[in-house]
Amino acid sequence: MRRYLVVANQTLGSDVLHRTVLSRLGQVPGDVHLLAPATHADHYTAALAALTADGAAGGLPRSVAESWRRRDTVRLGAALERLRLDGIHATGAVGDPNPMLAIRRVLDRWSAHEVILATLPAGASRWLGLDLPTRVARRFGLPVVHVTAPLPQATAT
């Protein structure tokens, strides 16, 4: 049985990622582990700066990082539920904000045959700017299926 490591954050709930996972499992059934590297500090720092510039600093959550981590956890839960509704056995976790470190930590305890990596489009994707698909393939010696998903409507940051 194949093991698929799916790595995504803002794109976790995208239809294109969901269809790709279903397609891969249709070709060779297996287990799926969703990894959502935590939202990078640059994102919530920018959000904090924008709120402060708008004079809304008094309404900020006690910990902006915790707020973003909760958002990541909710996004992960929704993606897991969607796969489970399709009858797919899936597990998942929110990982380190550094996607390479997050992937390594998962692969240290869970062997995968393939990585499915979902990013935002070029220009909006920090991961593409880091050349993450190529780096993951080289570092871990696994085939990487890269999918690009559109910007989510609610969080186009």
Describe the protein's architecture and organization.
Helix 1 links the parallel strand 1 (2-7) and strand 2. The chain starts with a strand and ends in a 9-residue tail after the last strand. The model is unreliable at 43-51 (pLDDT under 50). The protein is built from 6 helices and 5 strands; from the N terminus they run βαβααβαβααβ. The chain has helices at residues 15-27, 41-53, 64-85, 99-109, 126-129, 132-140, and strands at 2-7, 30-37, 90-95, 114-119, 144-148. It is of the alpha/beta class. The protein has a single domain, classed as 3-Layer(aba) Sandwich (Rossmann fold), CATH 3.40.50.
Strand order of the largest sheet: 3-2-1-4-5
Cα-atom radius of gyration: 16 Å
Along the chain, the helix and strand elements come as EHEHHEHEHHE
> Which CATH-level-2 architecture?
3-Layer(aba) Sandwich
Total number of helices? 6
Distance between the termini: 37 Å
What structural category arises from helix and sheet content? Answer: alpha/beta
How many separate domains make up the residues? 1
Summarize the structure.
By secondary structure, the chain is an alpha/beta fold. 46% of the residues lie in helices and 20% in strands.
What is the element layout, followed by pairings?
Blueprint: E1 2-7, H1 15-27, E2 30-37, H2 41-53, H3 64-85, E3 90-95, H4 99-109, E4 114-119, H5 126-129, H6 132-140, E5 144-148
Parallel strand pairs: 1-2, 1-4, 2-3, 4-5
Helix pairs in contact: 4-6
What are the salient characteristics of this protein?
single chain, 157 residues, alpha/beta, Rossmann fold, 6 helices, globular
